[in-house]
Automatic annotation (TrEMBL):
<comment type="subunit">
    <text>Interacts with RAB1A and RAB10; in a GTP-dependent manner.</text>
</comment>
<keyword id="KW-0472">Membrane</keyword>
<dbReference type="InterPro" id="IPR000195">
    <property type="entry name" value="Rab-GAP-TBC_dom"/>
</dbReference>
<protein>
    <recommendedName>
        <fullName>TBC1 domain family member 13</fullName>
    </recommendedName>
</protein>
<feature type="domain" description="Rab-GAP TBC">
    <location>
        <begin position="35"/>
        <end position="345"/>
    </location>
</feature>
<dbReference type="GO" id="GO:0005737">
    <property type="term" value="C:cytoplasm"/>
</dbReference>
<dbReference type="GO" id="GO:0005096">
    <property type="term" value="F:GTPase activator activity"/>
</dbReference>
<dbReference type="GO" id="GO:0006886">
    <property type="term" value="P:intracellular protein transport"/>
</dbReference>
<dbReference type="Pfam" id="PF00566">
    <property type="entry name" value="RabGAP-TBC"/>
</dbReference>
<keyword id="KW-0343">GTPase activation</keyword>
<dbReference type="InterPro" id="IPR035969">
    <property type="entry name" value="Rab-GAP_TBC_sf"/>
</dbReference>
<keyword id="KW-0963">Cytoplasm</keyword>
<comment type="function">
    <text>Acts as a GTPase-activating protein for RAB35. Together with RAB35 may be involved in regulation of insulin-induced glucose transporter SLC2A4/GLUT4 translocation to the plasma membrane in adipocytes.</text>
</comment>
<dbReference type="GO" id="GO:0016020">
    <property type="term" value="C:membrane"/>
</dbReference>
Length: 400
């Protein structure tokens, strides 16, 4: 470790030791990257994502309250439905029409349970393949949710719920565009080959199961948006950062802390996932067009080239913007980009600057390429050095 790096770590420690943290100072430090050592990054993200208050004297009571709230969510949305399902398997004499699985009433508990399963199946499919090039999400967590996994209670975990779910009617997968992929009726689902995923011993759960639970609870609490494909790519890096915190006291509560930080981030980013808002000023269409507007201002020649080839911003910036570049780079590089995004007061404007910088940095390739070559470049971005990209974005910002 170089002297300069040690000094940088010390700067963070000083900033984070203040009883009342100076947010402006912390943002300036974080903008150029946050050290992982000592759990500094995880702590900074919790502050930058407006989770932890700036007054450190409030942390202990605040965290206890938030984690208790999350435990209550688990009880109400995962444990209680599981108990209710078991109780609904009563003898015929004890089952009222209200509790019958064929009851058409949209307010019946069975109807809610089946609707939730549609969302859960999509979440499950997405989280199981989260960062497949890394073993982390398939490994068991050191801190499985004892509230759910206690063998004395035999609660239905989400994993078991998915494995036991076969939809004999229509199976609906929901993506960013709405409802698609309706399967043929009468066909039972074989969701996953038995040898595709490692079977963990009783009382254990993989990290992807924790992410699944976070997303399911978010969907239940936010029915207006529920779950849309891609949210797993946003929660993944946050959970990874918190769950690898070297401080065990923080790591133990990675699930609850991730849930609230993800919820806060989505409160700023959720409009990108709501199709009805696409063409509004807060929607994704406006943001995609903003990338080209900025490019037109910074590099007219390149802008005209892309226009001439009819390469529309939605062909590639949709994924860049909605997923905060999480699909364009390896996870460590995504985390480094997010250090800067989270620390910028106008984080989503800076994301547009980063997207514009990515275009400018490959301008020679784009000017020389035809439509096919350029689309391949933009959908499989060739530069992996995120420091170069962030430096260019800052340069564009300073020259605005």
């Amino acid at each position: 470790m170089s002297t300069a790096y040690r000094n940088r770590i010390q700067e963070f420690k000083v900033a984070l030791s203040e009883e009342n943290i100076n947010l402006k100072t912390l943002r300036e430090l974080c903008f150029n990257g946050i050290p992982f050592e000592g759990g500094i990054r995880a702590l900074c993200w919790k502050i930058l994502l407006n989770y932890l208050p700036l007054d450190q004297t409030l942390w202990e009571s605040f965290l206890k309250k938030q984690r208790d709230v999350y435990s209550q969510f688990l009880k109400e949305m995962i444990i209680q439905p599981g108990i209710a399902k078991a109780n609904l398997g009563l003898s015929r004499e004890d089952v009222t029409m209200e509790d019958h699985p064929l009851n058409p009433n949209p307010d019946s508990r069975w109807n809610t349970y089946f609707k939730d399963n549609e969302i859960l199946l999509q979440i499950d499919k997405d989280v199981r393949r989260l960062y497949p090039d890394m073993a982390f999400f398939q490994r068991p967590t050191e801190y499985p949710c004892q509230l759910i996994l206690d063998p004395q209670n035999d609660y239905e975990t989400l994993r078991r719920r998915v494995e036991q779910t076969t939809l004999k009617a229509q199976t609906v997968n929901r993506n960013r565009s709405g409802v698609t992929n309706v399967s043929s009726p009468g066909k039972a689902l074989n969701l996953y080959p038995s040898n595709e995923y490692e079977v963990l011993p009783n009382g254990s759960e993989a990290h992807w199961e924790v992410v699944e639970r976070i997303l399911f609870i978010y969907a239940k609490l936010n029915p207006g948006i529920a779950y849309v494909q891609g949210m797993n790519e946003i929660v993944g890096p946050i959970y990874y950062t918190f769950a690898t915190d070297p401080n065990s006291q923080w790591k133990e509560h990675a699930e609850a802390d991730t849930f609230f930080c993800f919820t806060n981030l989505m409160s700023e980013n959720r409009d990108n996932f709501i199709k009805s808002l696409d063409d509004s000023q807060c929607g994704i269409t406006y943001k995609m067009e903003s990338v080209y507007s900025m490019l037109k201002d910074k590099d007219m020649e390149l802008y005209l080239k892309l226009e001439e080839q009819n390469i529309k911003p939605q062909y590639f910036t949709f994924r860049w913007l909605t997923l905060l570049l999480s699909q364009e780079f390896l996870l460590p590089d995504v985390i480094r980009i997010w250090d800067t995004l989270f620390s910028d007061e106008d984080r989503f404007h800076f994301l547009i600057l980063v997207c514009c910088a990515m275009l400018v940095l490959i301008r020679e390739n784009l000017l020389a390429g035809d439509f096919t070559v350029n689309m391949r470049l933009l959908q499989d971005y060739p530069i992996s050095d995120v420091h170069t990209i962030l430096t260019k974005a800052k340069e564009l910002q300073d020259n605005s």
